[in-house]
Amino acid sequence: MSDSRSLQDILDRLDVQDVLFRYARALDTRDWELLRSCFQPDVVATYDELGEQQGYDAVEQLCRRALEPLAATQHLIGNVEVFLDGDNARSRCNLQSMHVRSRRDGDDNFIVAGVYLDELRRTADGWRIARRRLQRVWTKGDLSGHGKADA
After folding, report:
1. CA 25 to chain centre
2. 21 within some domain
3. Can you tell me whether residue 107 is helix, strand or coil?
4. Given Cys at both, which of 34, 47, 120, 128 links 89, Cβ 3.0 to 4.6 Å?
């Protein structure tokens, strides 16, 4: 492998990781335009227990329904693996998301932990998620009233 190809692979891996981190920041700041920059318009996303979401607008609506009623969230992305194949990539990363709501009974927080399995494509605007699957691994706390959304 030539040095320039190795450098391009490193840059592509960093760009893919940036999409994953940008996604988490977009959710936590409720920045829907930033969220849009993470996905292809025709994305297909499957969130365990919620079924398949077709297209970016469906993904955004799911995220809005899940997150806007909450007082705060923190989505942490880790253990990122990126597998490149030209203008296509696959990634696998762990997710841990803390959800905070204001409830009088004191049970304000719940955590969802899982794995994102993504397929990404290089576009004229950079790497974008084309397919996403969230596999829930564990949860802690009361998810009732959350609409079973894991965004």
Report:
1. 9
2. yes
3. coil
4. 120
Rounded-to-integer distance, Cα 110 and Cα 99, Å: 5
Main-chain phi, psi angles of 83, to 5 degrees = -120, 110
The burial of 113, by beta-carbon neighbours within 10 Å (0-12 exposed, 13-18 middle, 19 or more buried), is given as middle
* Domain residue limits at 132: 3-141
* 8 A C-beta contact, residue 111 and residue 139: yes
- Residues 6 or more apart in contact with residue 17 via CB below 8 angstroms: 80, 82, 91
Q: Say if 26 falls within a structural domain.
A: yes
* pLDDT at 49 (0 to 100): 77
Counted domains in the chain: 1
- Model pLDDT for residues 97-137, shown as the tens digit of each residue: 999 987 666 667 899 999 999 999 999 999 999 999 999 99
Query: Residue 52's domain is classified under what CATH number?
Result: 3.10.450.50
The contacts of residue 8 (CB under 8 Å, 6+ apart) are none
Instruction: State the pTM of this model.
Output: 0.89
